[in-house]
Amino acid sequence: MATSIKKIVAASLIGTTIEWYDFFLYGSAAALVFNKLFFPESDPLTGTLLAFLTYAVGFVARPLGGLVFGHFGDRVGRKTLLVVSLLMMGAATFLIGCLPTYETLGPAAALVLTGLRLVQGFALGGEWGGAVLIVSEHGDDARRGFWASWPQAGAPGGNLLATGVLAALAAWQSEETFLAWGWRVPFLLSGVLVLIGLWIRLSITESPVFQESEPEERAPIVGVLRHHWKDVLVAIGARLAENISFYLLTVFVITYAKTAGVDNSTVLGAVLIASAVHFVTIPMWGALSDRVGRRPIYLAGAAGIGLWIFAFFPLVDTGNFLAITVAVIVGLLFHGMMYGPQAAFFSELFGTRMRYTGVSIGAQLSAIVAGALAPLIAVALLREYSSSLPISLYLGLAAVLTLGAVYAARETQGRDLAERTHVR
Known about the structure:
Helix content is about 80%, strand content about 0%. By secondary structure, the protein is mostly helical.
């Protein structure tokens, strides 16, 4: 029996929210406490840089996860792989909450932390492609942008949840208590969330487009490289500004605000409100892409964030809660203009039996050079120049590259996902 599109969307949204909660929780903890708990012998900025290095390791594992999950997702189906990715992510996050710190294990604590981060990255690399595809392939051609944008909303949803839990703990606990045990609570909470997500995901049906298709390659990656290498490059370029901007706006901003003398509760509150706006508006951008096309919305978002970043950091420098909130909200609105249509846009680039592999590889390879390095590069630039201008120029350059990639792509709006899209 076919599952309704609304139930498919709900299952994907809840699952991606939980997985992104786990992934972003690590990033927020890296900015707030991991430098003190796992790298206590370094100066504050160096400790933060080392904490972000373990954070970046998760991105390195994402293309491998995308390749492995993509291969089996294109061979045996989307649903099974989505269940596996959720279990892997939840287990790794729960174990981080149980992990002894430097005080107990010494340098080995950071090594174990890095290993668990690798598992997180591997799982997320397989999660994203499957979640957006199972919605895209259940939905209709005319409203694919809208339906497929809902799993995308899981990113700000997870960030909203992670930031909200950390903000509440930071507000209700002293810094000493938070460092002693409070930081563990959000990680342990993941175990409960995963059980909820697992129950929902097991209740949905497999993608009908996948079930009706026939395997075209023994190894889907061969088909991707043979027929879709240009589309993979488009996906990589399209993600640069989107991925870099998101991590600067939601993760690095916590570190930057601290150097500007802004307290944690102020910046966490601003990110919390902005993430709520982001969550609501992503489907709006997806729906708009169904009317005017994927490329126009995406191009507007890339151009907007490339310009807005030059106003973003001066607003944060004011230390004013309202100014910081506006800075993050506007930045995430431009990000949403790219992220909302992205799921449908990427899904429409590839053939059915190589689609999971294609979207995963394109998206996750970009994540290594974009999101993985963004906080590291930003912290290094800040430490070297003591100015936000080099960081703004860095994102501005990424925006130019994204504009070029999307401009060079063909419009995909309304494409039938059941057709052999690699035959052109």
